[in-house]
Amino acid sequence: MDSTKPLILLVEDDDIDAFIVNTMLPKFCKECDIKRVKNGAEATEYFKNSENRRPSVVLLDLIMPFMNGKEFLTEMEKEGALKQLPVVVLSSSSSFYDRQECADLGVAKYFVKPLTPDISKEILQMASVA
C-alpha cells in the first residue's frame, strides 16, 4: 500500500461483501487503498498499533464474530481513536434501533447493504477523496 494514497479501513467479515467493496470503490477512487480487517477485534488492534496508517474513513459492518460493529464503536469511543474520523456503517440491518444506537456512538452515516454506486460516491466524499 502506498502511504500517500487515501486509506479506507473496511471492517467486514463476509468475503462476498468485501469483494463488492473492493470492486466498487476503486471505480470511483482509483488512488484509494482499501485495508480489510474481518471483525471489530481486528479493527481495534489496527488502531492500537501506532505504526498503522490512519484511514480516511472507516467502513464498518455491524454483524460480525468476536467483536461486532457496535462493540468496536464503544471500545473506540473509550480510546478516543475515532475522533475526527468519519465512520460509515454498511450493514444488512435496517433496524431503527441499530441506526439510532450507531448515531449515538458517533457514526457519520448508516447505509443498508448492498453497496451501490451512489453509496460508494457518498462514502468517498466523506473520506474527502471524491
UniProtKB/TrEMBL annotation:
The modification 4-aspartylphosphate is found at D61. Keywords: Phosphoprotein. Residues 7-128 form the Response regulatory domain. The keyword Phosphoprotein applies. Pfam families: Response_reg. It comes from the Bacteria. PANTHER family: RESPONSE REGULATOR RCP1, RESPONSE REGULATOR RCP1-RELATED. This is Response regulator. It comes from Fulvivirga kasyanovii. The lineage of its organism: Bacteria, Pseudomonadati, Bacteroidota, Cytophagia, Cytophagales.
